[in-house]
Amino acid sequence: MHVFICENTPNGILTGVYDAWELKIQERCSHADIYLVSGQPDNYELFCDYHTVAPSAEKAGKVVSTLNRKLGHDFYETILTAILSIDLSGKKKMDKANAVYQTIVAALHSPKGARVLDSLSNPYIYRVFELSRATASEAHHLKGFLRFSELQNGVLFSTIHPKNNVLPILAEHFTDRFPQENFMIYDETHQLAAVHRAGKNYMLVDASDINTELLQNYSENEARFQKLWLAFFDSIAIEARTNPELQAQNIPKRFWKDAVELRHFCE
C-alpha cells in the first residue's frame, strides 16, 4: 500500500492526485493500492510506503485542466467544494483526499464519465457528494447572509465565521457582483482573507496577524446607515408574534454575530 500525505488544501490534495497517478503508472500498481491522506495520519501502519506530497501549483493545475477538459467544469466544482470541506468526521470515515482520488479514478475509467457522480452506492462517490453538499450549502447561505460595511478608507469589509473553507467560493461570487469595488472578506475561523481591488481579480492572503481594531473604523455614512437599518428592523417587528425558533431556521444562530441587526443577541 502506498500512502500519500497531502497538505489539507486544494493545491495539496490535487498535487497528491497527480503524484499518486504518476506512481501508479511507473510501478504498474492498482489504484486500490493507493491511499491519500489530508494532513498527518494518526497512525503509521506496517508494510505501507509513505510519500510526503509537496504542494505544486503546476501539478495541481494539470489535474484541474484534465478534469475540466475530460469531465467538465461541474465535475471539477464538485471535487473542489469537497476538498474545501472541513471534514469534521474525517477520523470516523474515509479521508476526503482518498475519496476525491478514487472518485476521479472512477470517473476517468468509466464510460459514464462525470455522470458517475450519480452512483451514490459507491462509498467514495457518496463521501465526495456528502462533503461537497456541506460546503456548497454553507456558501449558498453566506452569499445571502454576508454583510459588507464601509470603512473610513472606502473599502467594503465583512467578517465571516464559516465551518468550511468557503472563502474562495464567496470571493469569486462577490468579484463577479462587485467588480469595481475594493472589498475584503475576513474568514476569522480559518484566519484567511480575500482581498479584491477594483477592476482586478481577488487574492487569498494569510490574515493571522490582521488588526481587527482598525477594521471597526466605519465611515460616517456606514454608521448612519447601520442606525437607520436597526431602526427599520425594530419598527417592523411585531412583539406579539416573536418566534425565535423560526428566526433561527431562517438565519441559523451561528451567522447572527456577523449580522448588524442580530449581533446584539449574541453579546
TrEMBL record:
Residues 96-261 form the DUF4130 domain. It comes from the Bacteria. InterPro entries: DNA_repair_put (IPR023875), DUF4130 (IPR025404). This is Putative DNA metabolism protein.
